[in-house]
């Protein structure tokens, strides 16, 4: 679950220029928590004049960025048409990202795999399922 954006704001620092108009004012903001951050700039001079809108050359999300340090989660579920002694279908589940699965199904029945993946902060960019080291499914979602 994503919590509120986490950040720390430092102190303003002024580096004097040749004239007060050329002073440089800086502040450091550290974004530490996983979140989608949005920010903007606005400043006013001592005469009360506000800045013009900042030129971002038609960037769609110039003042938005993502901090995502956590791995996505995944679940793989295998269901077969094989019935257990109690009459229910055999089902096995694995949670987390798997590098290798060892299955104990050997039958002339169907086995259905369901893969689900989630990431709290970012979209899942790629799903990949390999069978005998041959890629059989590849979906890339572009954003």
Question: How are the SSEs ordered, and which strands pair?
Answer:
Blueprint: E1 7-9, E2 13-15, E3 24-26, E4 29-31, E5 35-38, E6 64-67, E7 73-83, E8 89-95, E9 111-118, E10 126-131, E11 134-140
Describe the structure.
This protein has about 140 residues and is mainly beta. It starts with 6 loop residues before the first strand and ends with a strand. The protein has a three-stranded antiparallel beta sheet with strand order 8-7-9, with no helix packed on it. It is rod-shaped and about 85 Å long. It is built from no helices and eleven strands. Strand 2 (about 15) and strand 3 (about 25) form a beta hairpin.
Spell out the key features of this protein.
single chain; 0% helix; 143 residues; three-stranded antiparallel β-sheet; two-stranded antiparallel ribbon; 11 strands
The total of beta strands comes to 11
**Low-confidence sequence ranges:** none
Share of helix, binned: under 10%
Query: Number of helix segments?
Result: 0
Cα end-to-end separation: 22 Å
What string gives the helices and strands in order?
A: EEEEEEEEEEE
Alpha-beta classification: mainly beta
Give the overall silhouette. rod-shaped
Mean pLDDT: 76
Compact summary:
This protein has no helices and 11 strands. It has 143 residues and is mainly β. The strands form 5 sheets. The protein has a 3-stranded antiparallel β-sheet with strand order 8-7-9, with no helix packed on it. A two-stranded antiparallel sheet has the order 1-4.
